[in-house]
């Protein structure tokens, strides 16, 4: 099943200004309190029409959100918001479910490669090899305020005097071991720690509470492209064709617990974790294949290859999971929808076509929308697109000729 969407089908006004002080219903709350969109005045939803593209039986395009000045490089959920970042250095906050621009920040701080959220903070990884920390603030129009960078100045001052803290990064070039020497491509967070993977082949461990770099691991033989942390284990996917599994040892340092080997001379660009009775690790490769391994529960046991599917005719650039579904984004501009089977296999249940460039990032929302879920996709065409994916294709079908959606009907659709 193919869904094509070559033109915007939902066109809300994307000119919502940054949150002003008057937008908050309570001015006495602390900056440290987490974001809750119910405390703000939601921008009004206008009138727009859902339109099913030709030959689309199940997958509905809800919106094409524009506003980025560069390719959309990464996405992250932050409570009731979806954050999208671009290679044009900007980060946009969109409000769910009305898909309105809520805030914009981060311009001028280097191309954004990855972002994660922890409490009321956003951590962004950049091409300039730094991690920036943003704090949610409702005291001014600058909703997301820059509060720090990693490594911190304190970390630098505590280490720059000792020669033993320097490592060789390139010929005739040395850096402190707390610094990345190339673009930071991915981030993961777990239990008070942030993990960063870089094109410099290293994996670094940071403490959220004080932003201190705790550890640097020479993890791979080539660039690290993807990271995920799950139940104390960290999985790193690399251009060297391997996914490595890391476990925190008794001394507090991480050690290698397993190696999942992909196809020879094929870069692994993304990694995700699915867990039912057994844990399954999926990796997306530059040859268009998605591979899956089972086993290694809590760092114990051997890993077994249980899935190997040709998902796309070009590189798989990103993966995401929502329940029993796995979604894959490709350089061929398409999104594959896969249903996980017993034993770890993947069954293709649909393909979504609509982006005008490679699909670089995917994020699924847990919002229950008419028997399905929302899928966000960011592409090199500078757009963020929103799709509705049914959870049961055999029972759930959209209307053939959907009516004009008013504000009330639109909000009812999401309730």
Strand content: over 45%
* First-to-last CA distance: 27 Å
What is the number of helices?
Answer: 2
**Average pLDDT reading:** 79
Fourth CATH level, the homologous superfamily: YVTN repeat-like/Quinoprotein amine dehydrogenase
Largest sheet geometry: 5 strands, mixed
Query: Helix amount, in percent?
Result: under 10%
Strand order of the largest sheet: 1-29-28-27-26
Unreliable spans are 1-57, 394-415
Name given to the CATH architecture: 7 Propeller
Radius of gyration: 21 Å
CATH class, anyone? Mainly Beta
* Total E-strand runs: 33
Which geometry do the CA atoms define? globular
Structural category: mainly beta
**How many domains, as an integer?**
1
Q: Which topology does CATH recognise? A: Methylamine Dehydrogenase, Chain H
